[in-house]
Design goal:
The longest helix has 17 residues, at 32-48. This protein starts with a helix and ends with a strand. The chain is an alpha+beta fold. It has helices spanning 2-17, 32-48, 63-69, 114-120, 142-147, 192-205, and strands at 53-59, 75-80, 98-107, 121-131, 152-157, 170-175, 178-184, 215-220, 225-226, 232-237, 241-246. The strands form 2 sheets. Strands 1, 2, 3, 4, 5, 8 and 9 form a 7-stranded mixed β-sheet that branches. Strands 7-6-10-11 form a 4-stranded antiparallel β-sheet, with no helix packed on it. It is globular. The chain is built from 6 helices and 11 strands. α1 packs across α2 and α4 (114-120) crosses α6 (192-205). It has a single domain (2-246), classed as Alpha-Beta Complex (Fumarylacetoacetate hydrolase, domain 2), CATH 3.90.850.
Length: 247
């Protein structure tokens, strides 16, 4: 446990100081279970600073990324209210800022298992996630990225819409009016609902209830791109409108 807390302290300091650190696995033996323990310890530190749990983010939701990382399941992290980006993000407080287009779900009732989640969806929206690996050179192993809360740094969502089928929604991300990524929500495990169900499954296994008002980021519809300072980003999804952020 002391090792878990020490590793969590190292990662937490990296986030707060916006300072890149060597991979944890360069010096510590860390398997997936221990990595999630580190992740939870980091989140406990944030909660102790009066942040509030606000949702779940999913990672490795594309088959290509799973193959690249040599895994057969998604990974996940936790969101807090301090990660919500209303309109502007200060990339000067980040190390390796990147952004990707997302499908977001709003939870309307408690979800304790994957069986509960379909009926618990209160809304769906286009969103974005700002990623920021805390490791030097944006280089990490699977346990490293899990411990680092799946590289979560911030997120934003557009207007919520009534639950609907978003299995194959066209998505576009623009920076300063120029298209930088285009794709489909089908890139998210073939259907973002599969990612939502995985979120409920993994949270339930960890003893975490998805609470009303929580957001689940189902995963990226395209690859992430670097997020420069002084930029304006717009993410659009067919039928869901758009969401914007400036840096």
């Amino acid at each position: 446990m002391n090792d878990i807390e020490a590793l969590a302290g190292t990662l937490d300091a990296a986030v707060r100081d916006a300072r890149a650190i060597p991979r944890l696995t360069d010096k510590a033996e860390l398997d997936v279970d221990a990595a999630y323990a580190v992740q939870r310890a980091v989140i406990r530190r944030r909660v102790a600073r009066h942040e509030r749990l606000a949702g779940v983010k999913m990672g490795f939701t594309s088959k290509a990324k799973m193959v690249q990382m040599g895994v057969h399941d998604v990974i996940w992290g936790l969101l807090t209210d301090a990660m919500l980006i209303e309109s502007r993000v200060d990339v000067g407080r980040l190390i390796h800022p990147r952004i990707e287009p997302e499908i977001a779900y709003l939870i309307g009732r408690p979800v304790r298992s994957a069986a509960d989640v379909d009926a618990a969806v209160a809304g769906v929206a286009v969103g974005f996630e700002v990623l920021d690996s805390r490791y030097e050179d944006f280089s990490f192993t699977l346990p490293d990225v899990i411990a680092d809360n799946a590289s979560a740094a911030g997120y934003g969502v557009g207007a919520w819409h009534d639950p609907r089928d978003v299995a194959n929604v066209g998505m576009l991300m623009e920076i300063d009016g120029q298209a930088v990524q285009a794709g489909s929500s089908a890139a998210i495990l073939g259907d973002p609902m599969r990612s939502l169900r995985a979120a409920a499954r993994l949270a339930g296994q960890a003893g975490i209830t998805l609470e009303p008002g929580w957001v689940v980021l189902a995963g990226a519809a395209t690859a992430a791109v670097p997020l420069p300072a002084g930029a304006h980003v717009r993410v659009t999804a067919s039928g869901l409108g758009s969401v914007e952020v400036t840096t």
